[in-house]
Amino acid sequence: MSSSPAIPSIRPRRVALFVTCLVDLFRPSVGFAAVKLLEEAGCSVEVPPLQVCCGQPAYNTGDRATTRAIAAQVIDAFEGYDAVVAPSGSCGGMLSHHYPGLFDDDPAMKVRAENLAGRSYELISFLVDVLGVEKVAARYAGAVTYHDSCSGLRELGVREQPRDLLGSVQGLTLREMKTPEVCCGFGGTFCVKYPEISNAMVSEKSADIAATGADTLLAGDLGCLMNMAGKLQREGSAVRVRHVAEVLAGMGDLPAIGEPERG
Amino acid sequence: MESTAHAFKANVDHALADPNLQDSLAKLKVGFSERRRQAAERLPEFEALRDRARDIKNHTLAHLDFYLEEFERKVIGLGGHVHWAPTAADARRIIAELCQSVNARTVAKSKSMVAEEIALNEHLEALGIAPIETDLGEYIIQLRNEPPSHIIAPAVHLTKDQVADTFLKHHAKLGFDKRLTERNDLVAEARYVLRQKFLDADVGLTGANFLVAETGSSMLVTNEGNADLSNTLPRMHIVLASIEKVIPTLEDAAVLLRVLARSATGQESSAYTTLNTGPKKQEDLDGPEQYHVVLLDNGRSAVLGTEMQDILRCIRCGACMNHCPVYGAVGGHAYGWVYPGPMGAVLTPQLVGVEEASNLPNASTFCGRCESVCPVRIPLPKLMRHWREREFEKHLTPKAVRQGLAMWSFVARRPALYRRLTALANRMLALFGRADGRYRALPLASGWTRFRDFPAPQPGGTFHARWAKRKT
Question: Is there a contact between B452 and A199 if contact means CB atoms under 8 Å apart?
Fold first, then answer.
């Protein structure tokens, strides 16, 4: 299902950031962390202004026509960049694994969708697998546990890459959950369409998190993080929740997700 | 079996409030997936076998008519009979007539989900023929008058205590008036009660894991050996199987068996693997005098050649439900019909209608764990999404969802408008959430805030707004 692309001899220099709608609206620091990590790895980062969303809300509701329209918009906006990088396995997977299938009856668009798919990546796997990054210059005092978000793990093969980079963060120890690979129950609109099932799933996840004794939860997808943070905080847990890119970029001192500004 | 798939949400509420069920599910979630993982790890070529298993089933489906006719020819050559049943009603009628032709009063049944699909027990009972379930799990739920909750472990929703109570209630009249607490004692008691019923049965009815075209054999795996008694003791053996169970050769069966047991229970192979190849021959010491195979279509051939065809590869191992976090939260009964979990979410709309089962393909996060363990690599999330597309086309998607999506899509297709609106939303949510960093309640988001806090945005504007500032 997953394959690590060989490290190319010429590094992609001109990288477009696919911010994702959740990062744009709720947690811009994840976007800035991504920019920092990419720039430190030698990329020149641009943020195409016409980007909005990857189209998953429509895609997963079965509205193919809207999905195609939004995909076409994304394909236009990201034309010409060496690589397109998203701080999300779910949105990255949408571009790299699902767009081409939307245009089976439109050969011209299919070619363009395949072209975009071939240069679209999830952030952490892009850093490790494509750019060959092996360590980061960051500190984080704490014990963290890492949740494998579903699309990143099972569609894109993101598993060891974030753990490898976290291993280079000074002061950080990793404590694994029993089942880090089990879904947290977010699932986009699923969590509001089937709130009771979603709650059962995220409750189980929070118990797994608590059992590690970690003080920080990290993952690579903001949707999952907001879901788990919301549950942990409702339960009165002191576990802080952050995007893995923030910690890797040395931005682990920002207020965690769902925490107020200090001061 | 009568579907309650339309009542999925009510079924879910019921399931989440059932402490016995939640207890059983907690054990199932750990046990099955861990055993499967270990079994897969012990076999270096497991992933390659999954590819071969997928290819075998794809090849067969591409030539299904050929292999079914070949199978029929072989069965007839062996002295058996093949009956084609286009619908569930046809299958019920055929089986009832066969039972009546030998004046059967009891039918010993080994576990068959296809028999559940056609509601065979109810039909036979109405005709005065008593069906006796001989698989332990099926026997337990028959006593309790419940449908199966899992395709390979039909009573997996029950705790040991519930089984103990059930046995005491139904076996006391047979002289077993002591409530048992040990698992082995419960099994021994069931075995004792069932043994006489095997001996008394007029007809044995089994399902089939595979139908082998090359030899005309039906192949069945169990861990209890009950199928062997169902098909050797009575004088008539009826095999009830759906058409996609046919495979070309015994060689193919060997590949499929290797992935089936490992995916299902983590065993290298099931305890019993039985081939039934025609009726008793003259030189045989035992076996049925009559051998009948009922081939059920019931909507399956309509799937051939469509985007849903991949679901016909399913070999009913149950791995998808064992690894499904939604099944793990609500169990099998919530799905409302015979087939639960991801494979059920794809198959049930096909067999009972998408109007009836519209919730099932929607009740998934598309986490993909099912696909990652499926022994024949069925892209289950993709097929569930196809059902959502069909629902959307048929206007079955709930109105509130459609309206919300239409509004979102209007804005999402206009980047400038989107920027203005998200900047506003960001500012408002950040402002009112500033003190706590999160919301305990939020209008229009009660589905979220009933169970979780809602994180407020970071202050300072959206990413795009801040990025624009950074550049200037």
Answer: yes
DSSP code of residue B244 = G
Q: Does B366 sit within 8 Å of A187, measured CB to CB?
A: yes
Q: Counting one residue from A and one from B, how many pairs have CB atoms under 8 Å apart?
A: 198
Q: Are residues A155 and A231 in the same domain?
A: yes
φ/ψ of residue B189, rounded to 5:
-65, -45
Per-residue pLDDT at B195: 84
Q: What is the average pLDDT across B272-292? A: 93
Contact state of B455 with A257 under an 8 Å Cβ cutoff: yes
DSSP A5: P
Best CA proximity match to A224, nearest among A122, A128, A151, A118: A151
What is the average per-residue pLDDT within B49-54?
A: 98
| Mean pLDDT computed over every residue of chain B | 94
**Nearest-by-Cβ selection for B413 from A29, A69, A188:** A69
Sign of the CA dihedral with A244 first, then A247, A251, and A256 last: positive
Of the partner residues A58, A202, A260, the one whose CB lies closest to the CB of residue B452: A202
A contacts of B457 (beta carbons < 8 Å): 25-27
A207 touches chain B (CB under 8 A): no
State the smallest CA–CA distance between residue A129 and chain B in angstroms.
22
pLDDT band at A1 (very low <50, low <70, confident <90, very high): very low
Please report which confidence band the pLDDT of residue A2 belongs to, taking 50, 70 and 90 as the band edges: very low
User: Six-digit token pair at B162?
Assistant: 């519930």
Q: Is pLDDT at B279 greater than 80 in this prediction?
A: yes
Whether residue A176 lies inside any domain: the answer is yes
Query: How far does the CA of residue B271 sit from the closest CA of chain A (Å)?
Result: 30
Q: Does A160 contact chain B (CB < 8 Å)?
A: no
Nearest by CB: B462 against A1, A25, A155: A25
The answer for A 80-119 residues in CB contact with B (under 8 A) is: none
Angle between helices B160-171 and B183-200 (to 10 degrees): 40
3-state class (DSSP) for residue B237: strand
Measured CA to CA, the distance from residue A48 to residue A51 in angstroms comes to 6
Would the CB atoms of B454 and A230 count as touching at under 8 Å?
yes
- B422 and A61 in contact by Cβ < 8 A? no
pLDDT of residue A3: 47
Q: pLDDT (tens digit, 9 = 90+) per residue, B293-333?
A: 999 999 999 999 999 999 999 999 999 999 999 999 999 99
A9-23, A30-44, B270-284, B353-367: which has the minimum mean pLDDT? A9-23
The reply to whether A208 and A151 lie within a common domain is yes
pLDDT band at B18 (very low <50, low <70, confident <90, very high): very high
**Domain end position, chosen among A129, A158, A188:** A129
Would you call A258 and B362 a contact, using CB atoms and an 8 Å cutoff?
no
Q: Which tokens hold the place of A20? A: 């994702």
Spatial strand order in the sheet of A216-219:
A170-174, A139-146, A216-219, A240-243
Q: Once rounded to an integer, what is the mean pLDDT over residues B222-245?
A: 87
A7 band by pLDDT with thresholds 50, 70 and 90: low
Q: Are residues A156 and A105 in the same domain?
A: no
Partners of residue A229 in chain B, C-beta under 8 Å: 438, 453, 455
Domain that holds residue A167: 134-248
Domains of chain B: 5-158+202-301 (3.40.50.10420), 399-471 (no CATH)
Domain-ending residue, one of A129, A161, A188: A129
